[in-house]
Design brief:
It comes from Salinisphaera dokdonensis CL-ES53. This is Tetratricopeptide repeat protein. Pfam families: TPR_16 (PF13432). Keywords: Repeat, TPR repeat. The protein is mostly helical and 587 residues long. Among the domains are: 91 residues, no CATH class; 103 residues, Alpha Horseshoe (Serine Threonine Protein Phosphatase 5, Tetratricopeptide repeat); 97 residues, Serine Threonine Protein Phosphatase 5, Tetratricopeptide repeat (Alpha Horseshoe), CATH 1.25.40.10; 56 residues, Serine Threonine Protein Phosphatase 5, Tetratricopeptide repeat (Alpha Horseshoe); 48 residues, no CATH class. Helix content is 75%, strand content 0%. The protein is globular. The N and C termini lie far apart (85 Å). The relative contact order is 0.02.
Length: 587
């Protein structure tokens, strides 16, 4: 008997065992043998989707096919094969329109970052549960993510209908279809059509206006605000939409005066100022936004959202004193205490008060920032001059967070690298890769240590390995381009990597520095200077200063070069690249 005949006979015997025993046994045998006579037919290697209309299988064979794909999907999940799990679950939908299955398939595909498969599953889910807000909202989100205008025209109205009220539905819609710049036209056109059909609905006009503002279509937003106010002149949200339009038109004081006229108790008026603050942030009016946060706090001192918004904005613009005061108040009131402690650590770190920073980071007990706070606390030990103590703390964290071993080895390697101990850093990265062989973070870090040790070929190999697994990894693209620029004459190849990185992050100072440096190597001094000046204006880094000064020197502008170098040397007198550049060109 042929080996496949033996395996298929085994499957036949397993079927007679019934239920779950059959399913597990048949799945195990089929995965090993690739039996040609499985009830679902032979699966094409290039496409897991099964055409249910190609044949007319019996009810039993359809049930078996469904069970096969679900079990294969579960096995893939257990093996952390997210894409395969999504493929199997979506394939199972060929044999069932069960909403629970469709919902799970959608979420698995989203987790696998496969929006096309998620959309296929979400359409089944939305069709099976037309009154489910969750289903219609997910289908709407997937339609906009896949730039499907026709689908958005179906699911966006269904989502509004499924909501508890049109007001709630339109507000949710505005949030769901925002944040997709490549689909701005589709979003605006769809909601405009809905607003025209629902012409007497102020919430419909409001949603259109909000979406248009977020996509910087001020004219559309202005017309929508006008219509919303005409429908309901007393609706405060329509007034706030009008204020948002005026802010985008540069009439901030006019918008603030409009909001000042709104009626309501102190709590309501505090919310109006809070909304206005957020509109001002979106328009890059940071000082005006801070003022609105403060007015909201005066009206409602216990408004934690207003105080937190004030603190975050103050921190982002470098007003550390105001940020610290607001975060301390939040912490003392036990409002967002873990977030407040984390950012108080950040403030202290920026003030180079490393002991105080460690104190605050260690107070972060839970929440999404707890792990990062503990790693930062270890880093603060290093900043206070105790490298062994920092390493010991990271080793303890590896016991506490075994699932984050790679990140902790990477953090320790980074400390050693910064401490000018590249050999010790390399050892740590090697230990980490022994434990987590596929870690991109560790391989990237090891490449930096290898470069510092002069092992350029090995450093390139690590970066190329990262890009083989993740072709669009911006850090690796930039690092490889910079490595080739500094350690080879393959400038055209280096330029290609850096261009790809810069396309992904056009304002990143590190990538701008790399681009300026490779342009200098290519002899394009004007372009090199432009990129390096942009980088240095955003990031006062010693290495960027070295590069900019060298370009200026080569252009004959020696005094300008000396000015850049001297400014950088004042803060970084021992920086190796900066010192080598100055000694070589202006000894």
């Amino acid at each position: 008997m042929h080996i496949n005949d033996v395996n298929c006979a085994g499957q036949a015997r397993a079927r007679r065992l019934g239920g779950a025993v059959f399913a597990a046994a048949a799945l195990a045998v089929s995965l090993v043998s690739g039996c040609a006579s499985q009830p679902i037919g032979e699966r094409p290697a290039s496409d897991v989707r099964i055409d249910a209309n190609a044949v007319q299988p019996s009810k039993a064979s359809r049930r078996e096919a469904y069970e096969y794909h679900v079990l294969a999907g579960e096995m893939a999940i257990q093996r952390n094969k997210r894409e395969l799990a999504a493929q199997e679950y979506v394939a199972a939908l060929e044999y069932s329109n069960d909403p629970a299955l469709a919902k799970r398939a959608t979420r698995i595909a989203l987790f696998a970052e496969k929006p096309e498969m998620a959309y296929r599953a979400a359409r089944v889910w939305a069709a099976a549960e037309p009154d489910s807000l969750d289903a219609q909202r997910t289908a709407t989100r997937m339609a906009i993510a896949n730039s499907d205008a026709e689908g958005l025209g179906v699911y966006a109205p269904a989502m509004v209908r499924a909501a508890a009220s049109p007001d709630i539905g339109y507000r949710l819609l505005a949030d769901v279809v925002s944040g997709q710049p490549e689909a701005a036209d589709i979003a605006i056109d769809t909601v405009r059509d809905m607003a025209e059909r629902d012409s007497q609905s102020a919430p419909a006009q409001y949603a259109l206006g909000v979406i248009a503002l977020r996509y910087e279509r001020s004219e559309v937003a202005a017309r929508a605000a006008e219509r919303a106010l005409a429908i309901d002149p007393t609706w405060n949200d329509a007034v706030l939409l009008q204020a948002g339009v005026w802010i985008r038109e540069g009439e901030t004081e006019k918008a603030q005066a409009l909001v000042d006229e709104l009626a309501g108790n102190d709590a309501s008026r505090a919310q109006y100022h809070l909304t206005l603050a957020r509109l001002l942030i979106e328009a890059d009016e940071d000082e005006a936004a801070l003022s609105e946060f403060e007015r909201a706090i005066v009206l409602q001192p216990d408004n934690a959202d207003a105080r937190y918004g004030l603190a975050i904005l103050a921190l982002s613009i470098g007003d550390l004193e105001r940020a610290e005061t607001a975060f301390k108040t939040l912490y003392d009131k036990n409002e967002r205490a873990d977030d407040a402690a984390y950012y108080l650590g950040t403030v202290a770190e920026q003030n180079e008060d490393y002991a105080n920073a460690q104190h605050w980071y260690q107070r972060v007990e839970s929440g999404g920032r707890a792990f990062d706070a503990q790693v930062r606390a270890a880093r603060m030990i290093y900043q206070q001059g105790d490298l062994p103590g920092a390493q010991q703390r990271i080793a303890e964290l590896r016991e506490t967070y075994p699932e984050l071993t790679d990140q902790l080895y990477a953090a320790e390697g980074q400390l050693l690298y910064e401490a000018e101990e590249p050999r010790a850093a390399l050892d740590i990265y090697n230990h980490g890769l022994d434990a987590v062989p596929n870690s991109t973070e560790l391989r990237y870090g090891r490449s930096m240590a290898l470069e510092r040790l002069g092992k350029i070929d090995d450093a390139q190999a690590d970066l190329r390995a990262v890009l083989e697994r993740e072709p669009n990894d911006v850090r690796a693209l930039n690092a490889l381009g910079y490595l080739l620029t500094n350690h080879s004459d393959r400038y055209a190849e280096a330029l290609d990597y850096i261009e790809r990185a810069l396309e992904a992050e056009p304002d990143n100072p590190a990538i701008l520095d790399s681009m300026g440096w490779v342009q200098y190597r290519l002899g394009n001094l004007a372009q090199a200077r432009r990129y390096l000046e942009q980088a240095y204006s955003d990031f006062q880094d010693a290495e960027v200063a070295a590069h900019l000064g060298e370009v200026l020197w080569t252009q004959g502008q020696h005094e300008a070069a000396r000015e850049v170098w001297q400014g950088a040397l004042a803060d970084n007198p021992d920086h190796p690249v900066l010192r080598e550049t100055v000694n070589r060109l202006d000894p």
